[in-house]
Please model this.
Amino acid sequence: MTTQKRTRLSATVELEAPVVEVVKKETKRFENANQSLEEFDWDAHAADCPSRMRRGNPFVKTNGATKVFYQGSDAQKWFDLYEGVMADFKAVIEPNEHYDGTIYSMSNDWAMLDVGHREMVYIDLGREPSSIRSLITVGAKFTVRVLSTKNQKGFILGSISEGMRQTIINDLKKSIESGNTAYIGTVTSMIPGGGYMVNIQGIDCFMPGSLAGANKLADFESIIGTEMYVVPVSYSYEKGTVVVSHRKYLQAMIPNEVEKLKSVAKDQVFTGEVTGSAKFGIFIEFNGCLTGMIHINDLNDEWAAKLEAKEVNPGDAIEFNIKEIISEKKIMLTQKEEVEVINPWDGLAAKYNVPVSVQGTVKATKDYGIFITIEEGIVGLLHISELEDIDTSTIKKGDPITVTVTRIDEASRKVFLKLV
Model:
């Protein structure tokens, strides 16, 4: 009896001990759940994991270090899928590399970016510009540049501003291939003898002086501080700099500007800037991207005198009218009023009711006949066959002569005559 009671008592004690242990474990697990990510006790979590008591699936082929507890017939398929996903998580994060990710969580000072790695990338919000901090929200997607894979607490540190900078550079480099994308940039400074620095969305790009305008600039410092459209044209891997061109943008605008020019009135006055001069005329840039020339014969007296005295300088303002658009690269300008030229051949056949006799004037004599002017600009031929009975040596230039107009061919501009 005594032994049985002791056995029961002992059994009672043995049953109570695990209960107390379970309560302690549950309490520990509960306390662990309230810890921050930095203080989370992974060892305690692993010790409480119920999988320690489960039996592995012997039919699933693994790498030997992994156990699969799922007993279903499709266990191998799910394990293979798991391995494919985890391969991305096992990738090594490299410093100074760029990764795409999504903001997972935030505090007042930090943001955590999920880049598909087993660890988050931490963003120090205090180091980000205010313009970028306002964009950082949970769920937002960014490209981040990894600054360090281990800080004092072992965290991966990154910079969104540096990542965005690389994104812009990548966009600029991609646009070089197409050559049809223009960006607004600010000319921030001039490099003596070299060109200009142009800032595009925070990226400093280089613009050679030869690509700063449609023609050579008269005042090289005049564009500093101005905004202009530029097109990326090349990338210097040696200097890590994007090379841009304002000239290429202007060239792309020329066809459209020329079409607009065709519809302007002849008397519309334009103002342009002299880009250069020669003995035969003055070259002018106008409408932002167009270049034309005023021939010396089309200059007014003032500018003709300046050209003669070599007092025409690049950058001088000048007024003019459009004379003729020969091509996109050849536009003729003038400072003289256009005089309407009347073609005397237009409607000539209707004017004369042939055959009709007219008083003409000898213009010239030839072996094959006499050229006779019947009115200003209209000359006909009196063929030698009509002059058999006349001594042509007595006929002089300017002599009056009466002839009959027998036919008028406006297309070939010929008037056929005979003696009255």
About this structure: The helical segments are 2-33, 42-47, 75-89, 130-133, 160-178, 246-261, 301-308, 348-351. The chain is about 25% helix and 35% strand.
